[in-house]
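May I ask for a protein sequence together with how it folds?
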Amino acid sequence: MSTNRGKANIIRLFNVTKRYGGKLALNNITLDIEPGEFIFISGPSGAGKSTLLKILYLAERVSEGQIVIDGINLARISSQRLPFLRRRFGMVFQDFKLIPNRTVFENVALVLKVAGKNPSYIKKKVMHVLRVTGMEKKANHLPPTLSGGEQQRVAVARAVVGEPSIILADEPTGSLDSESARRVLNLLLGYHQNGATILIASHNIAQMDCFSRGRNISLEDGKLKRISTILC
């Protein structure tokens, strides 16, 4: 199924297949995503949603096919350039992946430290992002002392602090109550309105009612089943 819509695309997948041993996790996926799109990737458990995000983030390599991100063919990227490409991404994990013995501030600041930013910039930028996500008052707290919703907001802050052009979120509300889930989704929507391309993997199609514009990419057994426009 081709999805080329005739405009410049920030992400392009050509006949992408991913195998784990003899099991097909993704099967011949061809997909185009334009800059600034809001995409829901839906499907049941085991459909390939998380695998799709992992190969975009280069946490996994494809078995067959090609991926082009912002004009860069991932099959040809050198190991030296890989960290610079990853800085274009912000990743929100389902299980947060916060460092438990580092404060909220330190968890978010780590992204900018790795990028070589100076301390004064880091402090200003991190506190700004924590204010936006409603976590400024918890800057000196350790992640284990926070609720699940608070930890996920810290994970969003960490994902966006480097001002990535693409934000990937893997089941970001899967373990949250409805109020916390809506708050996290609204945070992501805010960054989308500022120009970021957002891809959210979720088995909960009802969450898409929050958004008036976007597309739902439905996977089933690793195959691209359907692409539809989100209408509220």
Q: What stands out?
A: Residues 1-6 have pLDDT under 50 and may be disordered.
